Amino acid sequence: MSAHSAADWPKPEHTFVCPGKPISDSPDNPRSPRAPSGAAGEEPGTEPFGDLKRAPHDVLERAQRAGRLKCCKCRGSRMFYCYTCFSLVGVNPEEIPQIKLPLKVDIIKHPNETDGKSTAVHAKLLAPDDVTVYTYPCIPEYEDNKHQVALVFPGPGSVTIEEMMGQLSKLVVKKSRYPLEHNRSSEQPPQKRLKGEGNSEDGESSASTPTEPEETSTLKRVVFIDSTWNQTNKIITDERLQALLQVELKTRKTCFWRHQKGTPDTYLSTIEAIYYFMKDYHVRCLSQQYQGQYDNLLFFFSFLYKLISKAKHSSGKL
Q: DTW domain: from which residue to which, for each copy (predicted)?
């Protein structure tokens, strides 16, 4: 398997700003903001995001009152943002927080994932410089840098964040011991050492050739899969992901209003997984005090949770 350079990787989705044009917002419109559907939540007052240090939701509240708009790129009916074009719609971009993440994030999106149900767009809009979204089967090659990449996905071989850095260090050791292994033909045996080569006067072996600079296990990139749990098998079994260390967030519980029945409540939506990973990485791997640095990753998610929970409660579905 040959690795691509950064220039060979698929170009990332870009973020655009679109003022939008008004469309019908009548109660007969099933996609009107006055009639959100498919949501589940808690009674108002029990909203779990009250402690977030996030930007104010005023801009989203104004956009909600203004009604749904048409995206100026795809002409789709949208509220707040276009999940197809990754563009803001009808909101002032200066009031939307921008976040700098400590790691690069790759999101591998299933081609059959419904765009309107995905929270991957939240990450791209809020951290555009650090988040890239790929649509499967488009996946970067991670082989040469697998000691610097983690795949966040639950499974029998997954490790915790506390165990992650130690496991990545083992990959560095393995690579340094066999640096040419992946380039050597299976029919080409390693060169034999000449008699006396690399031996010191006392007979002990010593290095006689220059060594490559020692690599570190510094994590640089995290991969997330954006898909319904029933569709993930096709992506997670792809050979390009097999060498990656899998990390599971075992102690976090989802607040997603579209949580799939029959799956554990520790199975998170994409934006929740990114948020909790960054938060835990900051504390447990960087050993720094968390002061809300990544809380704005839940800027859209927390607002939609509150909006949908209120709608469900008022309709008697809670």
A: 78-313
